[in-house]
Specification:
The structure is a homodimer. Chain A has about 300 residues and is α/β, with parallel strands linked by helices. Helix content of chain A is about 40%, strand content about 20%. Chain A has helices at about 40-60, 95-105, 115-125, 185-190, 190-200, 210-230, 245-260, 265-270, 275, 285-310; strands spanning about 5-15, 15-25, 30-35, 60-70, 110-115, 135-140, 145-150, 150-155, 235-240, 280. In chain A, strands 3-2-1-4-5 form a five-stranded mixed sheet. In chain A, strands 8-7-6-9-10 form a five-stranded mixed sheet. Chains A and B meet through helix 6 of A and helix 6 of B.
């Protein structure tokens, strides 16, 4: 059964802003807009209104995809499915994100973490095309990991939360880190706010030659060490505000990963060379919002196929 | 097409001995024997001879499964598929384990890590039945992890090697560890030889109340922390000589895991309670050799179905 391509809306819920898209794929985006992330009620109302305006302007929406900061409840059948759970983002713990948008728009809603969404988008349209096993890391307001194994984001009793991995420290680094839960986990050391707190100025204003970057590269390399040993991704894409425009940072991460594994694995043979293994995302800064669009596409397909099964 | 149940041989290649089985499943084992692990040529010849004796005694063998210490080359199509690669086990690096047994016995050979095999066996016959996402950890001569995601052992550019995860140290613990590659990775701190080196006597002779166990529990809890955040297994089975008969050690690991995650995830809700989440394997000490039998069963089924496809 051939379907006309439906219009899809992607909503990337971020720590500081929510980026929304309407379109069908990266080459057909009709509009894009951002809504500031304030309290959940006001933010979700603004998003619902924006989508309503787009509906008036462009026609009916086939599905909505929400790619959100976490942790999230993604367990189908759970009474709190579609909720943000224990997030550090003030006021958002327990917010029923999916329910809110579904009640207003009454279309299928896809829901996953921002990083799982971005990983799906990179697998469909970006630099992970054709790969069944890969990882997408964002280093920004937080540190998040989307981990794809055998073609799907992993999901056991929870989604991946590897940004909160505890890591060995650079030998001279005794700064306590700033994760509310773990102090010096990867996010507590390498997120934008952590870098700013340590350096006393915003990450984007810190020059490339500052010794601070070595202390950011170290926990990121430890995260890669864990990833390579855990599911052995075929590629690791690293995006987010902290990494964008800092090619020297990824270069240093590659070196430190090699030092850390210390010849235990033949990285050249397994990865085809670290220069091509640890790379910026193919979709750049759009990986996040396009992730939400990919989740919308999946939700639409799922709804169509269950409808077809009923007919 | 109904098949008579074929006789299968399982070979668990271990660091000190190789345990071999002939049978069809855990309830139908006809014979079991161990061969000391010496140099690869002599060891594999002895195993091939043992299997030959069994063939004379019990009838034709349908398939062989090899569950081996690693790292291994498991990439189908790789020129070194079926080889042990950079192992610390003297003389074994580069050994073509699969080729050796296949040349002698000319039957389908299944091949995976000892821990992936044990995980498959636990999923089929043990305490992970019905679970699509779980982990099997062995703490013995080394520390190995078999990681099952969506029903299959993960395999990206390599198999899991999480025993070599670098971990944060217990606050007072400055012992350098003894992994040849990483010093104080999990294996370098918590394997049997590491415990013996630190304590000055074999792990099995150390009393339960020794403070050494706290320093073993700590890296194991850090490994669990990483696992829960990586693929969020629905259960973690922990076996191997170091853990067997030491229920207080797993108890301490559960406490330290909870302390380490520090409320970031609602472990009670996600795991159903750590007492049922981190448990000894259902197949006990037989998880390893039964893992090899499970690999043999899979290899037999695979060969039958490709034969059916050709017919």
């Amino acid at each position: 059964m051939t379907q006309l391509r439906p219009l899809l809306c992607g909503v990337e819920l971020g720590g500081t802003k929510c980026v929304c898209l309407i379109g069908t794929d990266p080459d057909h985006i009709l509009a894009q807009a951002a809504v500031a992330t304030t309290d959940p009620g006001a933010t979700l109302r603004q998003i619902a209104d924006l989508l309503d305006n787009w509906k008036q302007a462009y026609g009916p929406i086939g599905a909505i995809g929400i790619a959100s900061f976490g942790p999230l409840d993604l367990r189908s059948g759970s009474p709190s499915f579609g909720h943000v759970t224990s997030t550090v983002k003030a006021g958002w713990a327990g917010t029923d994100v999916v329910g809110h948008l579904r009640r207003v728009h009454r279309v299928p809603v896809g829901f996953n973490t921002d990083v799982a969404g971005a990983a799906i988008a990179e697998g469909r349209w970006g630099l992970a095309r054709g790969l069944a096993d890969f990882a997408y890391i964002t280093v920004g307001t937080g540190v998040g990991v989307g981990l794809v194994v055998a073609g799907k984001p992993v999901f056991g009793c929870n989604h991946t939360e590897l940004g909160h991995l505890r890591v060995t420290r650079a030998p001279t680094d005794v700064w306590p880190g700033m994760c509310r839960f773990h102090g010096d986990c990867v996010e507590g050391l390498a997120s934008g706010p952590a870098i700013a707190a340590r350096a006393g100025l915003p990450a984007e204003n810190i020059p490339d030659e500052s010794p601070v970057w070595e202390l950011v590269a170290h926990p990121l390399a430890q995260l890669m060490h864990a990833l390579v040993l855990a599911t052995a991704p075929r590629r690791i894409l690293v995006g987010g505000g902290v990494v964008q425009g800092r090619p020297q940072l990824l270069g240093r991460v590659r070196c430190l990963l090699e030092e850390s594994l210390n010849g235990y694995l033949d990285l050249e043979q397994l990865t085809g060379g670290l220069e091509r293994y640890i790379v910026p995302p193919g979709l750049g800064a759009l990986a996040g919002p396009l992730g939400a669009l990919a989740l919308a596409a999946d939700a639409y397909i799922m709804a169509q196929s269950s409808r077809a099964a009923v007919i």
